[in-house]
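Problem 3 from the worked examples.
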Amino acid sequence: MKKLILLLALCTFGLANESTFAQVTFRVNISSQPIWGPVGYDHVEYYYLPDIEAYYSVPRHRYYYMENGSWRSRANLPERYRNYDVYNSRKVVINESRPYLRHNEFKARYASSNEHASQVSIRDSHEPRYFENRNHPEHSKWKEYKRNQGKQDGKHNDKRSN
């Protein structure tokens, strides 16, 4: 009985702990990621785009870039990046708040690398889990799957109620 009470107290304290709470609220955001993002990440806060030294916030759907000595935020990249190809450029996943405030550190860490050659974009993936993204070319397959799943769930419910 003492062990049970001790375990209950530890669990209660652990749930009240702020760092534990942050881990519990961590969510999958595959459907929110841009289709130019690399596959393999269930959750992304920011992409760092080292070629143009900019960041993209997945939850906010905004780019962060330096202009006249301060960080700016926009839904689209500025005109000077019109030829930048987000599909075929290197992207680094950064899961922390406001990474652009530590830009010098990320710039130094990711200055030279050829990792992007192996990055497959969500758009080019044939993994069904990415079809949920409404911008994916095969999103209609996911919608059809969900529609059929709902029909099957309804059939199972009808059988149980008879």
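Problem 4, a separate protein:
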Amino acid sequence: MNAAAAFVLGELREPAFAVLDGARDRRVRNWVFDTRAPRWCLYRGNLTAELEDAAPWLVRIVPGADWLDELFGQLWGQSWGILVASAAPARAVRRQLRRSLLARTEDRRTLLFRYYDPRVLRVYLPTCTPEEVAAFFGPISAMAAEAETPSGLHVFRAGPDGRLDARILELPRPAATATAARPSTAR
């Protein structure tokens, strides 16, 4: 497992899942199936192939899986999705994530809420009241999203008082880059 994957999973502290956005990239669904990891579509019912391709997918992260290096090495920074952590069973995590798929506007229209796009999540969560944070997180203990820069990571947690605990962390650089960037001590 590469250093970025180990760092992010260490920050989440509990069993982790990826929520990947098929609408962002049509290759997501095939990539999800290629991992052979436990996975669930967040949409229910009999879906057309086109809708299934565009759907958000919940994938259990299996520590040490070879596909983690690809997720964090090539796909991180492409807004493919977010990570969530929870000790709850996958069924409860999926149910919680499904609850937030729709949003109602002030004029009572119902819209799809693509919170699993990291660009949406990192803007939405800081605007939430403590009640909204508690309702949004439910059994989820942490959410992580790529930051505006490829080396950044947003980690969000519901604090004990219901307020959002938000931190921005720097991902470790790949070993080759870190070594090349280190000043030489040889003379």
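Solution to problem 4. Helices lie at 3-12, 28-35, 49-54, 67-75, 90-99, 118-124, 130-137, 175-181. Strands lie at 16-21, 39-41, 56-60, 81-85, 102-104, 110-112, 142-146, 152-158, 164-170.
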